Amino acid sequence: MELETVKILKNRKIAEDIYELLLYAPNIWHRVLPGQFAEIYLENGINILPRPLSICQAALGNLRLIYKTVGDGTRRLSEFREGDGIRILAPLGNGFPVDFDASYEHIVIGGGIGVVPLLRLAQTRRGDVRVFLGFRAKEQIILREDFAAATEHLRIATDDGSYGYHGNIISLVKEELADSDKPRVIYACGPKPLLRAVQSFAAKNNTLAYLSLEERMGCGFGACIGCVVKTVHGYKKVCKDGTVFLADEVIFDE
Ligand code: FES
């Protein structure tokens, strides 16, 4: 895998502090699995600032990425315009398993910016995927139309009740899944408290679950050891061994 310079087709704000970046990447898009990510390399004087961004779609030569402006690097990225070139390394990470078994119910759970890598997963299987997305408030909701086009079973929760279910997304998942005893598999991405809750829900219900971890990353390909997490198999690198792990492998800090 090599660093490539690709062209920006679109870079626009879609919600509070959230941007959509569309890239023309004809040599990359066809290799991307659901849940994989890209490192964008930004130059700042003599420093190179790699930034990991989630890929939400890869189609017809293009990559669609969504990012949150959380520091200097991503703020600088938000100033790039259509036609600018940008250096990118992708696809990175292992991605979610895509060998869907039709006899299972596929439960997709995302929180905040963590919903981004789940879109392509939901799109890979229509109809039998149930999607649960949680946000702090209506203004923070992203990709609603995209998920709605991918599944008839989309539920959204907001912490403040300004849209959809009022409350925690895991409470909604528990309510909605209580009357179903179909075998199921869960795929989740979001902040640590959400992933911890999914881990515990899956353990109590003897359900297979995959968690995509969000960690601070440096290199993105296993060289800097900046992204290690504790697992039952020892320390693992989120960027290379993950970002997707089996829920019962991960040991969250107290
Ligand atoms: Fe460098 Fe994971 S980000 S090893």
List descriptors.
254 residues, alpha/beta, Elongation Factor Tu (Ef-tu), domain 3, Rossmann fold, 2 domains, 7-stranded mixed β-sheet, 6-stranded antiparallel beta barrel, 15 strands, 39% strand, globular, binds FE2/S2 (inorganic) cluster
Architecture overview:
The chain is an alpha/beta fold and 254 residues long. The protein folds into two domains: 2-92, Translation factors (Elongation Factor Tu (Ef-tu), domain 3, Beta Barrel), CATH 2.40.30.10; 105-249, Nucleotide-binding domain of ferredoxin-NADP reductase (FNR) module (Rossmann fold, 3-Layer(aba) Sandwich), CATH 3.40.50.80. The chain is 17% helix and 39% strand. The protein is built from six helices and 15 strands. It has helices at residues 72-77, 119-123, 144-150, 169-177, 192-204, 238-241, and strands spanning 4-15, 18-24, 37-44, 47-59, 62-68, 85-92, 105-111, 129-135, 153-158, 165-166, 184-189, 208-212, 228-231, 234-237, 244-246. The longest helix has 13 residues, at 192-204. It starts with a strand and ends in an 8-residue tail after the last strand. The mean pLDDT is 90. Bound molecules: FE2/S2 (inorganic) cluster. FE2/S2 (inorganic) cluster (FES) binds next to loops.
Summarize, please.
The protein is of the alpha/beta class and 254 residues long. It is 17% helix and 39% strand. It folds into two domains: 2-92, Translation factors (Elongation Factor Tu (Ef-tu), domain 3); 105-249, Rossmann fold, CATH 3.40.50.80.
**Would you identify the CATH architecture of the largest domain?**
3-Layer(aba) Sandwich
Number of DSSP E strands: 15
Can you list the strand order of the major beta sheet?
10-9-8-7-11-12-15
**Ions, cofactors and other bound molecules:** FE2/S2 (inorganic) cluster
Give the CATH superfamily of the largest domain.
Answer: Nucleotide-binding domain of ferredoxin-NADP reductase (FNR) module
Number of domains: 2
What is the chain-wise order of helices and strands? EEEEEHEEHEHEEHEHEEEHE
Would you identify the regions where 5 or more consecutive residues have pLDDT less than 50? none
Measured as a percent range, the helix fraction is 10-25%
CATH fold-level topology of the largest domain: Rossmann fold
Biggest β-sheet strands, sense, barrel: 7 strands, mixed
Strand fraction: 35-45%
Q: Tell me, briefly, the overall form.
A: globular
Computed structural class: alpha/beta
